[in-house]
Amino acid sequence: MPLLKQRLANSNSAITMLLVAAVVVALSTMAAGFVVYFNTQRLISASDWVLHTQEVLSSLQRSALLTERIEYRSHQYLLTSEEDQLNRARISANNLRISVAHIQALVVDNPTQVSNVRTLAAQADRLDEILGGFNAKSQVPEKEVEDCQHTISSMTDIEQTLLKERSLSSQRSSYTSIATEITFVGLLLVTLMVLFAFLLRDALRRLQTDKQMSLAHERLAETVKELEDRANESALLRSARDELQLGVDLRQVYDAAASGFSRFLPGTSGCLCMINNSRQTVEVVSTWSVTAMQDFTPPESCCGLRSGLPRWRQPGESEIHCAHFSGNPPERYMCRPIIALGNTLGILYVQCETDALVQSVQQRADGVRHLVQITGMAIATLNLRMKLEHQSIRDSLTGLFNRHFMQISLERELSRAARKKQTLAVLMLDVDHFKQFNDTCGHPAGDAVLREIAQLFQANTREEDVACRYGGEEFTILLPDVTVESARERAEQLLHAVANLRVMVEHRTYSDLTISIGIAFYPNDGDTAELLLRRADEALYRSKREGRNRLTVSQPDSVTR
Fold this sequence. Notes:
Number of helices: 14
Oligomer: single chain
CATH architecture of the largest domain: Up-down Bundle
CATH class of the largest domain: Mainly Alpha
Strand order of the largest sheet: 2-1-5-4-3
């Protein structure tokens, strides 16, 4: 009987412990669920605020880009008088107003930003109003653009500060959530160990639960690693994009692209290859690490260019090699065409030494594709900009600078000569009897003569000299920092060179070409562009009256200002 009572007492004690453990487990589970729910809500809220701030920053960045486009397009319109440029500027102004309205809706919770966005909206409306009445005689609204950019910069600074604060808050919430969850998980495990120690079945269940939790942690770790890789990939892409946008010439863009690919694809080697202007040769323009690539012709030697699609060559998948290697081709490489605005510009070549590197590159295929697109657009945009700049300052027939550029250069050289106390020579040149030649031999022959004479001028001028087509058969050459004697000698050289010139047009040779030259000097003959050109022109006509094929230096005493 006492044994039975003892057993009953032990049983009651065990049941009591089980009930207490169950209550503790239930309460702990409820508390853990509440805390997890509360922390999750805090994390979601913090994340939403971070995303909100990033969206505001993205909209501000787009507004800044639109203001730059307004200024650039309006400036291009004044230079080229192309209505398309003005229409694009107006579209950018309209898009700016839409972007500002979007920003206004985003920052309604921030009184400081509400005031700033109202100012920005007024500035955007002002820009739209100016462009509505913009014409060829208007001036670029630089002040309005600068005001917009200043307001956008102020708002960006405020949002950057908010982003930093909210990111820190989100990070603190994350740390707090993890610590709390770890605490409750530990408490729950201890309670479970006490509870399930009485029953083997419960112990087995606890073991199974632990295994499931372990798998969940592994999946979580894999997810976190994947997110970290994506974040790192995005940061590298943003950095590469920013570097490409900073490039002002093709060399800088090529080097920035190679640097971006080397950081984005660590452990690999490769290069950028661009198709030259003749479309017959593909040239290696930038590399990272050491590759087996070299310039090659024709472009179809590359299987990627021939197919127009990205192509991997590796054992077991493709045994056909491209024909653009200097020695034995490597075993693993990729050729990806660079295409922008519908044109194939070249290829990206990536070489991998191991299968692991191939797999790593393939895992980042989307990033590589995005970076190739950014690179192609940067190169195409720069080519288009250079083409437009060339067309705006060059004469289409002769390739010399045009009259507008000459006037700008003359003002600049006069300021420099005055600042450095140097001499500036202005040469006015005219092809003798050109109208008669044109009427007799035809316009194609006349155009050929003007082109040959222009090439002669380019070959006989220094890098700092400015040779321009003034109009018709008249030319102007600016010679900075020369003496009177040196200018006369160079003018004499031009006279003799033209006199010895032979022009072949349609199997017919034209010779006996001559020019007349008038020279004026700063500061002796004048201190303004208008006066120097007038003096040089008067000296030119004295050369013509005195028999042509000669040069005449301006005589200030014989000319009335």
